[in-house]
Fold:
Amino acid sequence: MKPFRIIGNIYYVGAEGVSSFLLTTKAGHILLDTGFEATVPQIQENISKLGFKWQDIKIILNSHAHLDHAGGDALTKQLTGAMLLSSAADAALLESGGTTDFTPYSTNLMAFPPARADRILKDGEQVTLGDCTLVCHLTPGHTKGATTWTMDAREGEKVYHVLFFSSTSILDGVALVGNVKYPNIAQDYSQSFQKLEQLPCDVFLAPHGSFFGLHDKRARLERGEKPNPFIDPGAFQKFIRNAHHDFEERLQRERKLIGG
Structure:
């Protein structure tokens, strides 16, 4: 997928279906999600096409530690020398190469090259490089250490709240009730939804383009549509309310089945 600037210092450098975002600063760059190990060369090429240097990546972050978003962490870290920052729970998953995940899928399907985090992040902690600061919001459920990121970006004279959503998807075969590998999964999801519904968001971005209308908004941006179509207040709140509703329905179904 052709790379492009979304807003401010934020660029899309990922594959068509799996997002990767480059946040540029004069002090170096931040890469949010490395995709699969196999997509690392594509991301590297996309960054070069934009006129930035691969070696200037100083920090690697993740939305969550699954194969399609963190599978390229180890290789990217090796090639760039960047620091990998992660929540504690996802750091453990990264170090296992995905093999300690609670999902029912085989380790062969979910496995990726292990990567060791250089710094463990806590909820509310800031990550700063140059003039760019992101805030870490732990939103567990999809993984035990899933992380949503927020930052501000400038477009013209205005500053907008940007939100990089992690995920609240519930994978097939993952139980919300009686989950031995993740006993507090339902509680974590509920708390994450409450937190996410309170976060301000003018620009909604996510690890999969289908979540935030990537292709439609990009096409409108290329046509020169004003204002920037990625500035879409209310889009995230609508998305997360629908996701919360689906979660509650699934939770109630499972409780009824267990109770019956």
